[in-house]
Design brief:
By secondary structure, this protein is an all-alpha fold. The chain is built from five helices and two strands, in the order αβαααβα.
Length: about 140
């Protein structure tokens, strides 16, 4: 498969992950307390993106193929360079929160989830530009 095929495949995967992440985020936006049992599907869609990023931050190799977590982390690091150490901690804390049985997502949590979605969107745009340059 050539460069266009590779970029196209990765773009398709990332775009699908972004779509599902955004849908899950919107479904949880107005919930006061979130129960894993009641919102399992939405929480798993968030974790499909948050988990590989958190594992990479911890220095672990990931087996996830839903996103390119290293590119997304790079985008987030550029945007949050001044507070990168604390920002990484917040991502790990968010992953733990999403893994728990019951939790409340704060405005800061939603801000972080929106940042992650923005970085994933920026990665999709970058892939599209690379793909367009090859045509």
């Amino acid at each position: 498969m050539g460069d266009i095929g590779n970029y196209s495949s990765i773009l398709d995967t990332n775009s699908q992950s972004l779509k599902e992440f955004d849908k899950a985020l919107r479904s949880l936006k107005n919930k006061k307390e979130i129960s894993r049992a009641e919102e399992k599907q939405a929480i798993e869609k968030l974790l499909d993106v948050v988990r590989p990023i958190a594992k990479s931050i911890e220095g672990n190799l990931t087996e996830f193929t839903s996103i390119n977590e290293l590119s997304i982390m790079h985008i987030m690091k550029i945007r949050h360079d001044r507070d990168w150490q604390r920002y990484k901690e917040r991502i790990r804390e968010l992953e733990l929160k999403l893994e728990s049985k019951r939790f409340i997502l704060s405005q800061n949590d939603f801000g972080l989830l929106n940042d992650i979605a923005d970085a994933l969107d920026a990665e999709c745009a970058s892939l599209f530009r690379r793909m367009s340059g090859k045509i």
